[in-house]
Amino acid sequence: MFGALNRFISRLDSDGPSQSSRDGHGACGFQVLRNKNSDIPIEPWYDFIIGINGRQVDDPDPNLFATEIRNCAGSNVALTIWSAKGQRVRTLQIPVPTPSPTLGLTLQWTPLSLTEDVWHILDVIPDSPADVAGLLPYGDYIVGTPEGSVHGEAGLSELVEDYLSRTLRLYVYNHEYAVTRLVTITPSRSWGGNGALGCVLGFGALHRLPVPLTEPPAGPGETLFETARFSNEESRPLSSHLKSYPSGSSLHQTTSNQSSDLLVPATLTSPPPPPPMASTPAGPPRTGRKARKPVSPNSAFDEYFKEGEKKSKEEDFTPASKNVPPPPPKMGGPRPTKSPAPEAQEEEAAA
């Protein structure tokens, strides 16, 4: 996945203008190979001089550059520096001495793309040649070798194949400590794992040299972030209301000392209480009043169920007594006749 993404980014770089040309700088510059002047903050190999006194350096002739430096004797010369660490541009004001108008720099006309040939150490397998050589994952970058120039993604693998079972020297830059060291490694196929180095490498636009860690980490007990403050706000000491008091001091003393720093809410006035209602004169006690029976909490439910039971009986035609006429017959049957009373039946029998 990373290889395809790197090829896509490389195709975009080749089709369109390069980053340096979009920024107004050329694709080449004077690479600093050696810096003999410790007062000049220029780092060899990583820094390129791409401009002088506000003009772009587009001529590889070193004599023209040296002439421009001599013309600034007794004053400052403005150098535009492009750094391979983070691909950033900065400007330096460097004083040029009058007796010997030189800067003490060894320069070489080099394309800026030379710094793209960097291999990032992503992982190191234990007991591998890379582990024995002391390579560190994530923080180390292979930037070159004194054995010769290495170009392209396959350049390092071809160099390793040429030095199988032999000592190979590599320039390794560590991002966490900002140091470049010379590492000696012996590539081998018989160390017991995959690869001749025993490490995972990253190459391309996603693995170029990052910006150096210029800010030191916070020490033990220090805060990482400072309290946010507006630009028009006056600076005042933090935790001004947190003061140390001697033992035995009361809380009242502490709060009285903090009263100037804390916000005091406004006094809220409550409305006056309403006037009492006029009471009617008490009359004589009423007599002959029946005492109320205590109402059970389930009385409402009892009345509700009794009312429902009464309605149910009315709808179901429940007879209230036995002297009721019989129900009507089914359709198509004989019409029922009224049975004679028992006294009439006795008279007929006697006749």
From TrEMBL:
It comes from the Eukaryota. Its main location: Golgi. It holds the Pfam family GRASP55_65. Residues 230-351 are annotated as: Disordered. This is PDZ GRASP-type domain-containing protein. Residues 28-112, 117-206 form the PDZ GRASP-type domain. Keywords: Golgi apparatus, Membrane, Repeat. It is found in: Golgi apparatus membrane. Residues 303-316 have a biased composition (Basic and acidic residues). Residues 270-284 have a biased composition (Pro residues). The lineage of its organism: Eukaryota, Fungi, Dikarya, Ascomycota, Pezizomycotina. InterPro entries: GRASP55_65, GRASP_PDZ, PDZ_sf. Residues 332-343 have a biased composition (Low complexity). Residues 237-261 have a biased composition (Polar residues).
